Amino acid sequence: MHGHGSVSVDGKTPPVVLVGNPNVGKSVIFGYLSGKYVTVSNFPGTTVEISKGTISANGTKDTIIDTPGVNNLLPSSEDEQVTRDLLLRENPKSVVQVVDSKNLKRGLLLTIQLAELDLPMILNLNMTDEAITRGVSIDSAELSNLLGVEVLHSVATRSKGLKEIGEALKTPAIPKMRVKYGPIIEPAIKKIEGKLGEIRSGFRGVSLMLLAGDETIHGWLQDKMSSSEFNEVMEIVASVQERFNEPLSRVITRRRMKEAGRISDIALGSSLNENSDLATKIGIWTMHPFWGLFFVLGVLYIMYQFVGVFGAGYLTDFLEKVIFGKYLSVWFTELFSHVPVTIIRDIFVGDYGLLTMALPYSIAIILPVVVTFFIAFGILEDSGYLPRLAVMLNKVFKMMGLNGKAVLPMVLGLGCDTMATLTTRILDTKKERILVTLLLALGVPCSAQLGVILGLLGAISISALLIWGVVVFCVLVVVGFLASKVIQEDSSDFILELPPMRVPKLGNIVVKTLARTEWYLKEAVPLFFFGTLLLYVLHETGALFVLERVSSPLVQNVLGLPAKATEAFIVGFLRRDYGIAGLNQMDLTIPQILVASVTLTLFIPCIANFLIMIKERGVKMTLAMSAVILPVAFGVGGLLNFILNLVGYTG
Prior knowledge:
Blueprint: E1 16-20, H1 26-34, E2 39-42, E3 49-57, E4 60-66, H2 78-89, E5 94-100, H3 104-116, E6 121-126, H4 128-133, H5 140-147, E7 151-153, H6 162-168, H7 182-196, H8 203-211, H9 218-222, H10 227-241, H11 248-268, H12 277-285, H13 291-336, H14 342-349, H15 354-383, H16 385-392, H17 394-398, H18 407-413, H19 417-422, H20 430-443, H21 447-460, H22 462-486, H23 506-523, H24 525-541, H25 543-557, H26 566-574, H27 576-581, H28 590-602, H29 607-617, H30 619-647
Parallel strand pairs: 1-4, 1-5, 5-6, 6-7
Antiparallel strand pairs: 2-3, 3-4
């Protein structure tokens, strides 16, 4: 790499690069600056798309690149590696970092790393309107003084402040701020810098990437230095790591977060204290080791009442029994009764009909649960409680090779596992996404299934309900722990900004709920139709009967259930709560109901979730997970059956 102002690696003029955290309005700003002529293509060797356009600044036309949203330049995802590689390889003429004004500290973590690469830049604080409504006021002059770069404000969605970005690009500045990493790491940085001096001007940042254990940079580095020099650098890294009891990446990130917090506190000034004392105290109580547990239990109870009772109960009953039961399904059946071709009639209005099963299932039964959960989730998100819940549960998830951020899709799974599996994209590493997908499929009951279980077990035996909860929770922890040891990849550091506690705004909740509901209708509903069509084919070919006959010995001999219970497992693959509800139609003892409930909870997920798993993790990984889930479900169910018989449990 050459110094700034020279040509990039492809011989062209160095570009202007847009960088920022996910969802900060970066793409809107890119669209404004680049105008109409934009090309979208995959970054070489990846599936990550980047957008390129042209911007007029300094009297010349420059290329402008919109990079994927990232939280860190120590890559834990393909998106982050692409952004880091662009910054290293393209030697940008200037960088525009876009920051969410409501989450200044999170943005500053990235600013610190850009500063260490000696990249000329400007800092754009976007969404200032939202920040103001939340009582957040940033002193841009003080922030500019601390960083040594120009700081601008904007509201991208209204094109406010965007013209000033083009003007500021004429005189970008290299940040003057520097984080000090202590008496052990700083000398090592100097030593590595001595080996990298001929490569590029941002060798402090590259040195820290190497010390943090970033192996993705090795190939780029080995192309630019001799093997002996590279080995000397790696020896320095190894010698420093030996002096710490934890990964250097955590030490470095923790120091950066502390500095980001210090700068953020100064720039925010008095606005830090504008939240009421009560809101501040509530924020502290929610994370207290003792009192925080009461908040967790209280939130879960309220969510169950709203989602499980109101959504999965009242709303679902009204849509299923009245709207569909009395009107739509009757009308569909009458309409297709005039169709002379039997197979077409059965596909649409038969026992496995698209209009009599898939449509009522996805709209009448699941949609009310999903919408009420989205509302509850939006309230938790907008109130600032969700990150605090992640902090509270971080230690539990750490035992499973995860961190507190995993609580977000796991809680979402209590609404709908299909939807929650898609949200695993927010997790930083492939390992974490695989683990959470596995745990969601294994033992996180969706709200419809949870509602039926609570109603069924709670009505006959509180002790059975408690046993069910303890067994499922322990299985999740044990399987998560063992799986984290099998998957050979480090988990990401737990970095989560804690926003102030506040009263949620109705407008925000409505907008988020509508957007997420639209996603459900587009992404998940088509899968219900496909799954129903698949079941129709299995039924017509006799494959369902074969499955029932093959599975009966396992259900009878291992689980101690009657052969008829096999139907519950087959139907449970279509719809998880139907599997549990089917137990009501059988003459079972309390121990048998308990064993069946545990096994069905741990059983392979519904067909819609199964298809989403294939979409997100691939066929091979989904089949591997299923190969784990089935033995665990029947093994735990069989062991529970043995123990209950041994102790003579009767409920």
